Amino acid sequence: MDFNYTAEQEAWRSRVRQWLAANQPPALTSEERSNADDDFLWERLERWHVALYQGRWMGLNWPKEYGGQGATFVEQLILQQELARLELPFGCNILGVIMTGPAIMQWGTEAQKQRYLRPILSGEEIWCEGLSEPGAGSDLGAIQTRAVLQGDYFVVNGQKVWTTLAHRAHFCQLFVRTDPERPRGEGLSTLLVDMRSPGVTIRPLRQMTGSSEFNEIFFEDVRVPKENLLGPLNGGWQVLISTLMHERFGIGETLGGTEQALNQLVKLVKATALAAGAAAKDPEIRHALARFAIETAAKRYSGFRSLTRRLKGLPPGPEASIAKLASSELLQRMLRWAGRLGGLNLLLERGSPLAPENDWARRLLGAEMLTIAGGTSAVQRNMIGERILGLPKG
Q1: What is the pLDDT of residue 314?
Q2: Which of 19, 76, 163, 181 has its CA 20 to 30 Å from the CA of residue 59?
Q3: Three-state SS letters, the chain
Q4: Do 127-235 and 256-388 agree at the fold level?
Q5: Where are the domains of the chain?
Q6: Model pLDDT, residue 337
């Protein structure tokens, strides 16, 4: 297999680089880095999202009729590579773009597509995913949030937890149980819920990183118009599976961050001095970096399996779980290794005079989240074993 890019694709890369060089946001000043809170960083992210959208880079591979450019997945991948090279974020509406948007394109009515897809790309309407519950974390077949159809409305009662960006979101792709008599996944449905509806209560969960991007959501007699049903009634399990596949494809191929982390590790090594001399000359450290570089390359080439499916016009399959598993576990090991190398200095909080760049303290504290969000590593291994390798269920 030839992994080289064509002349046309390299010309596309040059075009992407030129635009990013001319439009990328300025780096944070020392004062901004010291005083930046979540609201300041969110507003900065929103402005960058708008710039990407106005530059016609957001939703690059989406159909033109829904606000995209109809580009290929290879062109989308090149954009992501160039964003990672400059350590630039994807935008503020990540879940909407990589999860809800593709799910609506796959399962939605034409009216739903026309209503929701363009505001997702523009960032005008931020989305979250109503998945995990206190009694249904990775076991989403155990979802208990209820939706009862009464006339022209579903009436929703229940609770979701660990919902990313719920406090910023305008809408939620909510997975609910509509038929409690059916076994597990057979009685689930998917609703598109306005987060400003009466009866919706959001409680941010403050983490040890100091941030609160995860939230609890409580639904008390929330009325959702029945035309906001996404996919078939009681057919939400298939919508759920395809949404998660889109998420894992996005995490593994688009937002894995291992290439960016590798570059930052190299910078950290070059800036670190050991008692015996420069860290960059230590053979064990050089060996560790080489191992991370090899794993990063292997993950990238393995991820082309998922890309190949998309180029054939197929939705993401279970091999997306390989990309997600490899990305999250490798990134977690990279961060832990950085913590051992950098020592206590890396634990200085943002704003401390001697705090290093790249906000290492928050990243180290948040490392455990990587192998939980988007489906735990145990769940990914089960899916790989059962759906790819054909092993019997344990």
Answers
A1: 74
A2: 163
A3: CCCCCCHHHHHHHHHHHHHHHHHCCCCCCHHHHHHCCHHHHHHHHHHHHHHHHHCCCCCCCCCHHHCCCCCCHHHHHHHHHHHHHCCCCCCCCHHHHHHHHHHHHHHCCHHHHHHHHHHHHHCCCCEEEECCECCECCCHHHCCCEEEEECCEEEEEEEECCCCCCCCCCEEEEEEECCCCCCHHHHEEEEEEECCCCCEEEEEECCCCCCCCEEEEEEEEEEEEHHHEECCCCCHHHHHHHHHHHHHHHHHHHCCCHHHHHHHHHHHHHHCEECCEEHHHCHHHHHHHHHHHHHHHHHHHHHHHHHHHHHCCCCCCCCHHHHHHHHHHHHHHHHHHHHHHHHHHHHCCCCCCCCCHHHHHHHHHCHHHHHCCCCCHHHHHHHHHHHHCCCCCC
A4: no
A5: 7-92, 127-235, 256-388
A6: 94
Identify the active-site residue in 129, 247, 253, 319. 247
The domain covering 256-388 belongs, at the CATH homologous superfamily level, to Butyryl-CoA Dehydrogenase, subunit A, domain 3 (1.20.140.10)
Who's near 178: CB < 8 A, 6+ residues apart? 146, 147, 148, 149, 154, 187, 188, 189, 233, 234, 236
- pLDDT score of 207: 83
Please report, for residues 117, 145, 208, 214, the alpha-carbon distance to residue 176 in angstroms, rounded to integers and kept in the order given: 22, 5, 30, 19
Whole-structure pTM value: 0.85
133 is catalytic: no
Q: State the fold for domain 7-92.
A: Butyryl-Coa Dehydrogenase, subunit A; domain 1 (1.10.540)
Cα 165 to Cα 128: distance, rounded to the nearest angstrom? 6
Q: Which fold has domain 127-235?
A: Butyryl-CoA Dehydrogenase, subunit A; domain 2 (2.40.110)
pLDDT of the residue at 208: 81
Which residues of the chain are modeled with pLDDT < 50?
252-256
Torsion angle defined by CA atoms of residues 322, 297, 307 and 391, in that order, rounded to the nearest 10 degrees:
-20
Residue 255's pLDDT is: 41
As a residue count, the chain comes to 394
Give pLDDT, residue 176: 97
Give yes or no for a contact between 265 and 165, defined as CB atoms under 8 angstroms apart: no
